[in-house]
Amino acid sequence: MTGPADGATAAAPANRPITSRRARRAATAGAAVGVTSAVASGAGSLVAAAYFARRVLTPDRQRPDDVVVRAAAAHTVTLTATPETIVPGRYGLWIDNGFGHVRVGDIMRVDATRGTVERELLAVDRGYLAPGPARWNAYFHGSPPDVSIGARTEHVTYAGELGAMPAWVVRPQAGTDDVGRWAVLVHGRGARREETIRAMPPLLAHGWTCLVPSYRNDEGVPAGPDSRYNLGLSEWRDIEAALRHAVAHGAREVLLVGWSMGGAIALQLLDRSSLAGLVSRVVLDGPVIDWGDVLAHHARGHRLPRHVGSLARVMMRQRWGHRLVGVREGVDLAKTDWVSRADELHHRILLIHSVDDEFVPVGPSRELARVRPDLVTFEEWTVARHCTEWNTDPERWERLVADFAAG
Fold it and tell me: How far, in Å, CA of 287 to CA of 351, rounded?
């Protein structure tokens, strides 16, 4: 509606009726336009909210190349400069449509004029490195643990709620005193199991058998009933099934490690699983402590009006919105807010998070550490982007995890 100061000359005083036919037609037309605009605005908000929610909940089946190899030499590789490729640390590249893999190290030179960055070439694990498209790999490793770190790896399956789920089991070297200590490593949203390999050396060194499970909607495993992520609210059941496998094979104590959404899954398991009592400690790296905060962050990044982001949350939760969003099981983000639910936590947590995380803001991690200092040890990083704290400072990361695992 237009305020009096903007359109007083177009309307009759409030205490006088509109008597002319032309005036009545104008008033009727104005009302119709207002109603039509309101309906269109409401429908547009509904469509925008549904689209935003689906983007959050839908797995990315295709992973397009996102960087270009400009040149390759014996010990260096030159790439297009992107927000990821100009960050210090160790990373990887998928080449040949994902069939090849390369590991890169320190930044040697940045050419702002050409928009390129030259990095140390550590190894070509497989494939042929040549100029052309590639895909950035924040995991650093690009193969199972036996190939990536030389650790003997058992390829197993366990019985999940939706069917057989593949997993890796990596045992510490022979002679370990306690074979009942198992670490269950949970990768993030849309990630691969290779993401977890970075954590294995300090855990294996302290006698933890490492189990890396899959969960619904991973590549090559059974999808959920709606082929959507539930942001940890259903995925935790797949990790619980993995814990049952560990118990059946001798596990008496469990250490959970979760990256990003894997952290959200771990927290749901601690809250809901009858096996939570087996868990003695938890490591969270760049975790989603509050999905509501993450969605609000991305809504702002996409310049969505605040009410559209709020409507997306309602549609995820309420039955009337499930069909529009594409879910069968409601996604209640209030259940994922562990700052509000902090008094329900009972496990020791090592929480690692970078202030420069562009995908999952650090704020809820800081706040959880503030309200539960008795349980949460918070280690703050800088420079690292999402879940790449190890990449930028592997020595510090492994020392922290080793000390926590040894305690």
Answer: 8
Asked if residue 192 is part of any domain, the answer here is yes
In angstroms, what CA-CA distances link 115 with 75, 82, 134, 142? Answer: 20, 8, 16, 26
Q: Residue 195 phi/psi, 5° resolution?
A: -55, -30
Strand partners, 69: 79, 132
Q: Is residue 303 part of a domain?
A: no
Closest Cα to residue 252, out of 313, 209, 297, 301?
Answer: 209
Same domain as 153, residue 121: no
- 31 falls within a domain: no
**330 vs 278: CA distance, rounded Å:** 28
Domain of residue 395 covers 145-290+337-406
The model carries a pTM of 0.88
Question: Is 47 inside any structural domain?
Answer: no
- Ordered per-residue pLDDT tens for the chain, 407 residues: 334 433 333 333 333 444 455 544 544 444 443 433 433 356 678 999 999 999 999 998 778 999 999 999 999 999 999 999 999 999 999 999 989 999 999 999 999 999 999 999 999 999 999 999 999 999 999 999 999 999 999 999 999 999 999 999 999 987 565 689 999 999 999 999 999 999 999 999 999 999 999 999 999 899 999 999 999 999 999 999 999 999 999 999 999 999 999 999 999 999 999 999 999 999 999 999 999 999 999 999 999 999 999 999 999 999 999 999 999 888 999 999 999 999 999 999 999 999 999 999 999 999 999 999 999 999 999 999 999 999 999 999 999 999 999 97
d(CA 396, CA 334): 34
130 and 235 both lie in a single domain: no
Where among 120, 137, 154 does a domain terminate? 137
Alpha-carbon span 219 to 330, nearest angstrom: 23
Q: How many CB atoms lie within 10 A of CB 32?
A: 10
Q: Do 91 and 187 have their domain in common?
A: no
Give me the residue label for tokens 């929610």.
Answer: 53
Q: Which of 137, 166, 183 is the last residue of a domain?
A: 137
